[in-house]
Amino acid sequence: MKILKLLLAGAVIIGILYIAKLQQELAAPIKTLEPGTLTIGVLTPGRPQHWNEHYLTKFAKEHNLVLKIVKTEDFSDCWLLPANQEVDIAAHNITPTIQREGPNHVWSKPYTQVRRSLLIRREDANTIHDFEDLAGKKIAFLGGTIERENLSRRKEESTQLVPTDSFQKAREMLENHEVDAVAEGHFDFEPMITEKYATIAVHDFVEGSPENIVFSINSNNPSLINAINDFIDKNDYNQMTREQFFSDNTSN
């Protein structure tokens, strides 16, 4: 009986110490590569860049940090930037796959979800409705992503896939009639039709499972990991983005 009491007392002490350590980490000032500055990486050119900057600007202000933006054009291995101590947070609209995991970076909680879609010229919206309407035509997509696998499973055999190095380049090709569609992620807060474009064929990479989007953070930075996860819990990314960027747009 005495031994049992000692074991229980030991377990209680360990629990108290663990909670105290956790509270200390939560209360500790956020550690960043450059003191007083939050350095984030974003993919540019690309429309989510502005949304993520807006979201993380609020986070930085809440913690009295100056926001510094590092823009990269190459998506490949962008999730490794925090592990390589090039940025504090990689905010490149990253889907957390097993292949992208590593010992020196961790994923934040999901801050939004994305579905797959095709972007076409608005003038073609009456004739192009889905993948089968793109038989014999061209679809541009961002190279270095899992989009090729997704498109290869869905496209018609005669549809040609054209890799590009940026979403802006893909959209320029669409506007110049060099391709007939662009494969892009679609977010629920985005309008389906805009002045230039129409979104069609909205689908999931894995049917019925929209993809989570996360930030990548250095695994040795618990203060930042805890702070960003707490911020995500309290701040609705979709609502903030819709109000800031799409309040004047009308979905059709």
Total number of domains: 2
**What's the CATH architecture name of the largest domain?**
3-Layer(aba) Sandwich
Topology pattern, helix = H, strand = E: HEHEEEEEHEHEEEHH
Low-confidence stretches: 22-27
Radius of gyration, rounded? 22 Å
Under CATH at level 1, the class of the largest domain stands as Alpha Beta
Shape: elongated
CATH topology of the largest domain: D-Maltodextrin-Binding Protein, domain 2
The largest sheet is: 10 strands, mixed
Helix content: 25-40%
Key attributes of the depicted protein:
252 residues; D-Maltodextrin-Binding Protein, domain 2; 2 domains; 6 helices
Question: Can you describe what's shown?
Answer:
There is one protein chain. The chain is of the alpha/beta class and 252 residues long. It has 2 domains: 32-111 and 214-245, D-Maltodextrin-Binding Protein, domain 2 (3-Layer(aba) Sandwich); 114-203, D-Maltodextrin-Binding Protein, domain 2 (3-Layer(aba) Sandwich). 32% of the residues lie in helices and 25% in strands. Strands 1, 2, 3, 4, 5, 6, 7, 8, 9 and 10 form a 10-stranded mixed beta sheet that branches. Helix 2 links the parallel strand 1 and strand 2. The radius of gyration is 22 Å and the shape is elongated. Mean pLDDT is 88; it is low at 22-27.
